[in-house]
Structure to design on (512 residues):
């Protein structure tokens, strides 16, 4: 079954594409995590319980802000947790209504670095057709806990950048000063007037960077119609998460562990004294986890510990080729992958190498067909490869070389035709093969099929791979963590994977 790419795919893809085009989005100095290890982000779905927030009915459909806020917040949490170096908590995960003070206290109890309150706007005097779009309220500039204003503005800039990709009108980053009745807390201890919104003001008193994201106008029919669509609400949460992750400089957890595969049987096994059998071991793990990168390259002490007789005797793991990785507070056993892995991150210079190898090879790019399918030239084609491969954590060089091998450098000499946008012979053994609507969809399907074989991680985009279910009846997920493992699986040829690896030699010999 074939799907059209959804808005979420487009959003994530556009976002990655955009960061590719303007690689140097500059943010001010981002403070280190308060606890010295992970950033703590507390998400606050506004309203709840008896407080429905803004409510509106159009065309006999009624939406309540509290419900929408929770859906966006859950999607934001889910997406942000795909990144390493961050812990994400909610002030409410059900239909309850903590007070403003209680919400701030929850953030304080978690020692939050960031406190993001998720809301939907409503215009009292709106006429149903305006205003539209999103706006973000941040702490106003000032001396009292001044970093909340600078950090808040940076985070809001990231969120703003990604929310813009959803097509909503960008109403900007704003702050609001208190006015009206005097009360305790009207002035900060520095004598400055406080922030207007209780969430932001309370967080600032607690030394936490707080902000309110007003995602769209429930009172405006165009925005309202978008808010009726759960996939759009998920997209809003994704946008918030990607913006936060970009400003904090977080990497996807799958990329942190790119050369290793979590062994299913030990997945999510938390190491503690009981497992390690010694407090010494636990200390080593704790200090390693707190070190700069938490990458396996820095894990020499862990490796030596694993091979030590203390550990081996205790866990009798001597027959398992394991390494340890740390992500999201869980120590994981990873099976070392021998050979070129299917999964992995590469920097954008691989795009130039792919274009370079194409040019050396001297074939004619089928521009006539692919200019109507989103990739008018080889440059666009290679950028899409990079974008979709990276969006799922699959190696872009693998996707390129496999596509060139399968299509005979886009000449389509086999049973698949150029119009099908099927670059890896998907579903083509003995018949015509899968058909995709555009180059991006065809490449994403190839990437997701590779991810089926190469990893047990979930897909980050909606599944457009029409062969996903078919392959699952024959092979388990993650059965081919290395490219040579694709032989006899993706293809019946016994040197299929090795032939692709051999093409890398030419790719990386390209002189730029
Ligand atoms: Zn609200």
């Amino acid at each position: 079954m074939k799907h059209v790419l959804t808005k979420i795919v487009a959003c994530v893809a556009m976002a990655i594409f955009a960061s590719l085009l303007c690689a140097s989005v500059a943010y001010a100095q981002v403070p280190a995590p308060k606890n010295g290890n992970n950033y703590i982000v507390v998400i606050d779905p506004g309203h709840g319980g008896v407080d429905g927030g803004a409510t509106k009915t159009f065309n006999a459909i009624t939406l309540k802000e509290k419900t929408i806020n929770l859906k966006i917040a859950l999607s934001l949490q889910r997406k942000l947790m795909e990144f390493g170096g961050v812990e994400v908590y909610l002030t409410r995960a059900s239909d309850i209504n903590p007070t403003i003070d209680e919400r701030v206290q929850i953030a304080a109890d978690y020692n939050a670095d960031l406190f993001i309150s998720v809301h939907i706007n409503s215009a009292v005097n709106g006429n149903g057709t305006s205003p539209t779009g999103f706006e973000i309220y941040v702490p106003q500039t000032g001396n009292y806990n001044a970093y909340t204003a600078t950090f808040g503005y940076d985070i809001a800039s990231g969120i703003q950048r990604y929310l813009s990709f959803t097509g909503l009108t960008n109403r900007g980053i704003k702050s609001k000063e208190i006015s009206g009745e005097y009360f305790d807390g009207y002035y900060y201890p520095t004598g400055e007037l406080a922030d207007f919104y209780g969430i932001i003001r309370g967080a600032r008193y607690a030394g936490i960077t707080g902000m309110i994201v007003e995602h769209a106008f429930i009172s405006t029919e165009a925005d309202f119609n978008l808010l009726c669509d759960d996939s759009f609400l998920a997209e809003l949460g994704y946008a918030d998460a990607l913006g936060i992750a970009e400003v904090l400089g977080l990497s996807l957890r799958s990329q942190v562990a790119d050369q290793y595969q979590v062994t299913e049987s030990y997945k999510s096994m938390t190491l503690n004294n009981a497992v390690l059998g010694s407090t010494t071991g636990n200390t080593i793990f704790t200090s390693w986890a707190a070190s700069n990168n938490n990458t396996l390259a820095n894990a020499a002490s862990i490796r030596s510990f694993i091979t030590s007789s203390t550990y081996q005797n205790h866990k009798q793991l001597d027959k398992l080729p394991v390494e340890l990785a740390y992500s999201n507070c869980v120590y994981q056993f990873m099976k070392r992958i021998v050979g070129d892995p299917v999964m992995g991150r590469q920097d954008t210079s691989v795009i130039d190498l792919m274009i370079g190898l194409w040019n050396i090879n001297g074939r004619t790019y089928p521009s006539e067909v692919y200019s109507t399918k989103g990739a008018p030239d080889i440059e666009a084609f290679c950028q899409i490869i990079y974008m979709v491969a990276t969006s799922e954590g699959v190696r872009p060089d693998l996707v390129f070389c496999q596509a060139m091998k399968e299509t005979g450098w886009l000449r389509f000499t086999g049973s698949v035709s150029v119009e099908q946008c099927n670059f890896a012979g998907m579903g083509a053994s003995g018949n015509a093969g899968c058909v995709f609507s555009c180059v991006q969809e065809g490449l994403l399907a190839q990437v997701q099929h590779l991810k089926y074989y190469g990893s047990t991680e979930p897909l980050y985009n909606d599944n457009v791979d029409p062969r996903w279910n078919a392959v699952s009846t024959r092979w388990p997920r993650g059965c081919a963590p290395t490219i040579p493992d694709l032989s006899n699986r993706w293809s019946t040829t016994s040197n299929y994977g090795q032939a692709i690896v051999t093409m890398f030699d030419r790719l990386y010999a390209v002189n730029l």
Q: What stands out?
A: The longest helix spans residues 230-248. The longest strand covers residues 209-217. The chain has three domains: 31-250, 260-336, 349-507.
